[in-house]
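Researcher: I'm preparing a figure for a lab meeting and need a structural model of a single chain. I don't have an experimental structure, so a prediction will have to do for now. The sequence is pasted below. Please return the structure as C-alpha cells so I can convert it later.
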Amino acid sequence: MALDIELIEKHDQKSILQVYYANYLTNVKGLSPSTVAHYFDALNNISRRLKEKGLITNDIYEVLDVDTLEKLKDVLLSDPDFVDLNRRGNSMYSAGLNNYIKFAKGEDFATVKEKINYLDIPVPKVPSTSAERTQWKRSSILRTQAIEYAGYECEINACHESFVAEKTKKPYMEGHHTLPMSLQDNFDVSLDIYANIVCLCPVCHRRIHYGLKCDRKEMVDRIYDNRADRLANSGIILSRQEFEAKVFSE
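Model: Understood. Here is the structure written out cell by cell.
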C-alpha cells in the first residue's frame, strides 16, 4: 500500500529519499516486507559507518546527487573492515548499496510508468537557507530519475533530437521544475517532487524560460494536461488558470 502523508511527516526533510525508496521497493517493485527490511538494515549500517568517517551528517539519504553516492561507495569498498563485514554477510551490504544507487539513477523508471502514481505523494518542503535571497534545496537525484522516467525524450515533443552526452551515452536532456522552486514559499508542500519535474531537450528548456509568451503558454498548458492529476496526488491542486498564473508570476 502507498505511504500516506502522516508517515511522510514523521521523517525529516533530508530523509525524503528514504520515503520515496520505501515506496519504490514496496509498491513499484512489489518486494516483501522482509526483503525491504534487509535493504534498509544494510543502508542503516552503511550510514553509521559513513557518519563515523565524517562523510555524512545523519544518513545516506541526505546525499542529493549520484556522483557523491558513487564516491562514498568507493570509500567503503576500500575500507578493509567494511570489505570483511560485507564478505561475512554474503555481500548483503554492497548489494543494498548497489540497489539504492540503481534507484537513485532511476535505471528502471522508464519501465514502471504505470506505477509512477505510487511515488506521487505530498512531500513537506525542505527548510530553506538564507543568504542575500532564499535558497531552496533541490535534488539532482530526482532530476536524474525524472529524465530516466521519460526515457530521455523531450516531454514537449518526443521527436526533438539532442546530442549524445559523454557521461550517459544517451541524448542530453534537462530536468525542469514547471512550478519554479522560487515559488516554494507559496506552497505548503515541496515543489522538488517527481510530479513537478519534466524532461526537456535543451532548446525547449531555454524556450520555456525565455521564449515568446504565447509559445511558453502553449508549453505550460501541455505540461499541465499531462501532470495535473499527478500534482494533485502530490498535494498541489491547481486549476489551469491558477497553474498558468503561478508559472508566469516569475
